[in-house]
Amino acid sequence: MAGTSDPANGAAANADTLIIAGILGRGGDIDKAARSGLIDAKALKGKRESCVITVNEYEGKTAVIVAGSDLLGAEYGLFRLSELSGVSPWHFWGDVTPKKRGAVEIPREALNYRSGEPAIKLRGFFMNDEWPSLGGWVHATFGGFNEKFYEKVFDLLLRLRGNFLWPAMWSSVFSEEGEAYPTASAELANELGITMGTSHHEPLFRAGEEFSFLMSDSNDKGYGKDWSYYSNPRGLREFWSDSVKRNRDYKSLITVGMRGERDSKILGENATLADNIELLKRTITDQKKILRENGLENAPKVLALYKEVEDYYYGDERAKGLEGWRELDDIMLLLSDDNYGNTRTLPTDESRKRKAGFGLYYHFDYHGGPISYEWVNSTPITKAWEQLTAAYEFGVRELWVANVGDLCPCELPLDYFLNLAFDYDRWSGINKTKEFLENWVNTQFGGYADKSTLSSIAEALDGYTRLNGDRRPEAVNEETFALFEEDEAARELARCDELISLTERAEKGVSPERADAFYGLVGFPALASANLRKIMIISSLQKYLHKNRVAEANILCDELERLTARDEELCRRYNEEMAGGKWIHMMSSKHAAFKNWNDEGSAFPKPKRLTLPETGESLVFVSGIKKPLEAGEEITLSPLFSTEKKNVRAAVMNTGSKAPSPPAVKSSEDWLEVKRTSGLCGEVFEISVNWKALKESAEGYVEIAFSKGKTVRINLSARIADTKKVPKGYYLETSGAVSMRADGYV
């Protein structure tokens, strides 16, 4: 990267167009080009992670000159050339395999490029909660979390113009598990210019499980036996001193502070807030001393204000917290969301003046209470935009790090997260997420699908993340959606069916060369998310019908068995077929109806079948009404309003195993229309008002007649609302509620 072309391999010397890449100020061809005025050196001097790409004549040949202000700037420039050549950042992780070609043609205007400094100084992600899925795949593919694995991670990170990583840590030690030699992964990161860190509860370069591997049986020897600075300060000082010596020469952001093992508190529940604050102060003071003794006094440091540490920072009326403590002046404060993508606190005007600044820890994956979500992406990028732009505008600009769990399938939100962090001005505008999504889809599938299919892919991605964003998959159970109020369950089922149809239609429009990429990035998460939601809603409906002892309860048993088998098949295809079995074990996380904060007790519904008599009675189930109507009964429904144009459904079911003769249905009024329609089970009739045929409010009924001469009557009234006097932009109440879009507020 010194900026000198290497003709030894013959490629540069024989090519019609040279590619010259390097760092300004390191000598060689880059500095020579700068002296000749072929690149704008002023655009790079003193800049961070910036690059300039120009096309000029150089020593008799056309040359694409890639000049970086530093190592990362030069790398980003080269990866821009790669992307312009048709290589997606997701070429490995998303199976977006580049097209083989004999020559690459790039428009000259696309090659003339200048990048400014990244908006956020440190931009990266946290590979966390990695078992059983990512961990199983890594061990099957690479033999462990070694440099071969991290080479793939670093390639993605740099192509997304990130520069920071918290490595996987549930069972591995990043700086000790290289295959060639223990620190091979750490050295690779350093060579590439990547800043490594350790997560919010891993101080001074130590991995979360490292102490459990090295602890002794007594606090009087070795590193001691207690992970507690209260009972084992000597052992922990030695433990941290050794890790600082091991990693001090690598580019790092050093985590300080201390939390309990596996995301818990250090002191017991009987300890006061003041006790915890004083212990944390003592811990940080001694950690800074260790760094000072090893020449790292001025090294960048971070304290994560995560979970209970946030309480220690702010204190209360009885115990002064760490806020304002001078020992933190040179330590970045890492704020956190609430684990579900909502920022908890942002800097005040006064606190923004602090020299070390603020960072943000954001979650696209979470393992913890009240409920975990680790399976597929469940955060719409529109929500991420709302929260992240607020953080930026409030001065959180030193570090953005996102918990992405297994990474797959969090590809889309991670890509957006890092693009926003790098080029904030481009992607921070209102509704820019739509443009980003369309660009992202085109990067992965452009040239392998027509315009209509690309639009469907974007719609499917947006649709499934909104579905999961409304209620994360693990948190959906049989009681989540109401069967009767506002037809919520029925509307949600229709939403799922529409998403499945859209996704399957898009899949058919994608060329075979992108089939694996489509399934991994779009098809699996969309189809599996919708399928899981259908399972939970239909299970709820099946239990209700079972309670009413109608034959359709058994039909839904069959449907639930089919959908559960479908879930298994979707996961099997991802693990065993997609990309020839490349992703074995990657979709192994439990995801059905969590009963605890974790997956303990997670299980698919096990419906019960009915034993029915051959003949039975007909029942009419009316939308929004909990108790079914028996023959001879009637019901008066709430009025239907012209402003909402809501329809009513009536499903006829039977308590016997032998289907009776179809019922006869009639309407009392011409404006009250009835038609047979498809439904999940039973004979379904849709009742609607023809508002064009109705001049004023009116009443009518629909009558359903059975073979024995008995009927069920449904009385309805239609109310025409006079909206002529309602000012533009106002929202009307219907059914006792007013609903408006977020962008409809004036």
Structure description:
By secondary structure, the chain is an alpha/beta fold. It has four domains: 7-115, Chitobiase, domain 2; 122-430, Alpha-Beta Barrel (TIM Barrel); 451-581, Methane Monooxygenase Hydroxylase, Chain G, domain 1 (Up-down Bundle); 618-719, Immunoglobulin-like. The chain is 34% helix and 15% strand. It contains 19 helices and 22 strands. It has an eight-stranded parallel beta sheet. Helix 7 links the parallel strand 6 (164-166) and strand 7. The chain is globular and about 95 Å long.
Integer tally of domains = 4
How many β-strands, per DSSP? 22
The CATH architecture of the largest domain is Alpha-Beta Barrel
CATH topology-level name of the largest domain: TIM Barrel
N→C terminal distance: 54 Å
Roughly what fraction of the amino acids lie in strands? 15-25%
CATH-defined superfamily of the largest domain? Glycosyl hydrolase family 115
**Average pLDDT figure:** 95
Q: Which CATH first-tier class of the largest domain would you pick?
A: Alpha Beta
SS summary, helix count: 19
Percent of residues in helical segments? Answer: 25-40%
Radius of gyration: 31 Å
| Class per helix and strand makeup | alpha/beta
User: What ranges have pLDDT less than 50 throughout 5 or more consecutive residues?
Assistant: 1-11
